[in-house]
Specification:
The chain is mainly α. It is built from 6 helices and 3 strands.
Length: 195
């Protein structure tokens, strides 16, 4: 099941949060149709709604990141392009209505929802912890430890805590890092922790 929108997913930008809420609603529609018969016309309408909405959302989100000087803007834009490409591929490679439903579910789950819950939340994390922003808005300084992403190798009980910038390189530029002991590639554990 896809998660439902919750205020804890807020990036404290009214426009972007409203768009994220709409994307969660569209995701819920995808989940709802995944278990029932559906006409191809209805399915195409949902895909068109998604596609049109993410284009607008991505532009607005990129403008917001530019405005706050988000340091990972270029990597984030790349992720947006990959999501858009996967939606286009999805539409072009359809064999049947059921095939389309399955692929749409995968794209929405692995790309969109994961993207919002992980990468868009990093925008807010960065904004909150940016000293310039804090001083500009007269907010109290507080030390917040950076988020690390967990990776593992073939060694028993060996976990690596990877910073976000390295995590982005490993996930989106296909850069590989190896364990010095077992020489295997590090594998993402899909968890993040505060250091």
């Amino acid at each position: 099941m896809f998660p439902e929108w919750d205020q804890k997913y807020s990036i404290n930008n009214t426009k972007i949060d409203a768009q994220h809420q709409k994307l969660f609603e569209l995701a819920a529609r995808v989940e709802e149709i995944s278990d029932r018969a559906i006409y191809q016309v209805e399915l195409k309408k949902i895909i068109a709604d998604f596609f049109n909405y993410i284009k607008i959302h991505f532009q607005d989100e990129e403008s917001y990141m530019f405005k706050i000087n988000y340091p990972y803007l270029n990597q984030h834009k790349l992720m947006h392009k990959q999501i858009t490409r996967s939606m286009i591929k999805l539409i072009q490679s359809v064999k049947s209505t059921n095939d389309l439903k399955e692929k749409l579910y995968i794209v929405v789950n692995s790309w969109l929802i994961e993207h919002i819950l992980q990468h868009d939340m990093m925008i807010e994390y960065w904004r909150k912890n940016n000293r310039h922003n804090k001083q500009e808005h007269n907010l109290e300084e507080e030390f917040v430890e950076p988020i690390k992403f967990l990776y593992e190798c073939q060694c028993e009980n060996k976990i690596y805590k990877i910073p976000y910038d390295i995590h982005l390189k490993m996930q989106y530029s296909k850069t590989q890092f190896k364990c010095k002991k077992c020489l295997s590639n590090l594998i993402y554990c899909k968890e993040q922790i505060k250091n």
